[in-house]
Amino acid sequence: MIQVFPDGRLVFDGRTYQCALGWTGVMDAADKHEGDGATPAGIYPIRSVWFRSDRITLPPLHFPIHEITHTDGWCDDPAHPDYNCRVTLPFNASHETLWREDHRYDILVVLGHNDNLPVPGMGSCIFWHVAQDNYGPTAGCVAMAANDLLAILPQLQSSALFEILKC
After folding, report:
1. What is the arrangement of strands in the sheet containing 95-97, beginning at the earlier edge strand?
2. Which of 20, 44, 60, 95 could form a disulfide with 143 if both were Cys (CB 3.0 to 4.6 A apart)?
3. How many percent of the chain have pLDDT more than 90?
4. 2-164 to CATH, choices 3.30.70, 2.40.440, 2.40.160, 2.30.30
């Protein structure tokens, strides 16, 4: 189990790592809404790992792996039927672009928040990804150094859970 604490600590296998969280902190997943900047508390499965093959070489992992391309996006428009799903760009509704010039989505782990029959407006695009150099806040994701992500991911089994704690 990976545990994330509201003070910016991620703990796995007895080791503590620095991480960044949403700019408004951690809130109960039931209170989460699109655009609030909060990281939703809860226990989430890891759905898949996406990566930029032009920047990162992934070791063998126990999760579905996808190479990010210029046409990959993730819908964050609560009014769209593809809300909180991967979409192909160009896309006519609000979305995250997965191919970014910064390095934040060089490794992108999709967490199972609001994805099993997504509830419109309850939050989308909750990822575990690469942090800014200064560990600046995210829009609601969990972010950490790329080398830390690459050290942890190969150790995880497909049944691994990701717990975000509120207190």
Report:
1. 86-88, 72-75, 95-97
2. 20
3. 99
4. 2.40.440
Phi/psi of residue 75, each to 5°? -70, 125
Report angle CA 82, 86, 87 to the nearest 5 degrees: 70
Closest CA to 46 of 133, 148, 147, 149: 149
Amino acid at 16: T
Domain spans of the chain, in order of start: 2-164
d(CA 127, CA 16): 19
Query: Residues 93, 84, 127, 42: is their CA dihedral positive or negative?
Result: positive
* Cα–Cα distance list, 137 to 54, 88, 134 (Å): 26, 27, 9
Encode 55-77: b = buried (16+ Cβ within 10 Å), e = exposed.
ebebeebebeebebeeebbbbbb
How do residues 66-84 score in pLDDT, each as one tens digit?
A: 999 999 999 999 999 999 9
What does the block give as tokens for 43? 């226990």
d(CA 129, CA 75): 17
Enter the pTM of the model. Answer: 0.97
